[in-house]
Amino acid sequence: MALSSTILTPILFFTTLILSSRANFYQNFDITWGDGRAKILNNADLLTLSLDKASGSGFQSKNEYLFGNIDMQLKLVPGNSAGTVTAYYMSSKGATWDEIDFEFLGNVTGQPYILHTNVFSQGKGNREQQFYLWFNPTADFHTYSILWNPQRIVFSVDGVPIREFKNLESIGVPFPRNQPMRIYSSLWNADDWATQGGRIKTDWSQAPFTASYKNFNANACVWSSGSSSCSSNSTSSSSASGNAWLSEELDSKNQEKMKWVQKNYMIYNYCTDSKRFPQGLPVECTATSP
Description:
Strand content: 35-45%
Distance between the termini: 30 Å
Oligomer: single chain
C-alpha cells in the first residue's frame, strides 16, 4: 500500500539502527507458493525453487525494507532453460506500487541467459534494460545486488555495477522512496514471451527446473508497524555511523565498470528506443542528472 509523503519525512540523516540480515533462510524468508517445490536445505543455508509442468514456486522476505543494500547469490537453471523465468526483485503493494527487478530469461542450451532489469515508481514501469552476462550463470553461484538509497538505485552483478537509476524527482520523475518493499523471488513458466519472443517453448522433458539461492545479506532499514528502523532525526552522517550505503554513489572507477558492461553486454535500453516512444524519450533519458 502506498504511504503518504506526509507520513514519511524526507530522510536526510540516519542513525546506526540498521538491520543486517544474513541467511538463515528460515529466519528471513517465507515460502509462499509451489506446493513443496520450494525447499530450504543445508541447515537453512540454501534455498531452491523448482518448476514443473504443474507449477512453479516462490518465496518472499519476512521483512519490508525502506532503503537497503541487498545481496543474494543465485545459481540459475542449467541446460535447456528456454521458457523459464527466474525473477528476483523488490516490490511494494497497491495500485501505485514501486518495484526494482532482476529477471533472468532462460534460453536453449548453449545460448546465453538474458538479464532483464526494470524500475517501477508509483505504478509506472517501462524502464527496461537488458544484458547478457559475461559468465555462465548456471555453473556456479554469482552475487546479484540492489543498492537502494534516497539518491539512486544501482544494480550490480558480482560487485560490478550494470545500471543506475537516479532520483530525478526535481524534474518530475517519480522515484521509489516512500513505499516499503519486500524481497520476492519466483521460478515460473513464461514461454509465451520469455525466449525469443515466445518462439521457443519450454521443454517439459527437462523438468524439474531448479534455481538455487544462498548467502543472502541485507544492510537495510526495516519497516515495521508504520515506522522505519532508520531514524530521520539524527544529526550524525550516515558515513560517520558506518552506514555509507545510505549516501553511496558510484565513484569514477565504478562508473567506468558500468560503462564497460553497457558497451559490451547491454542488448536493450529503453532510453534509446525512439520507435517505442515516438512522442519523445522519457525525461530521465535525456536529463543532465545531478
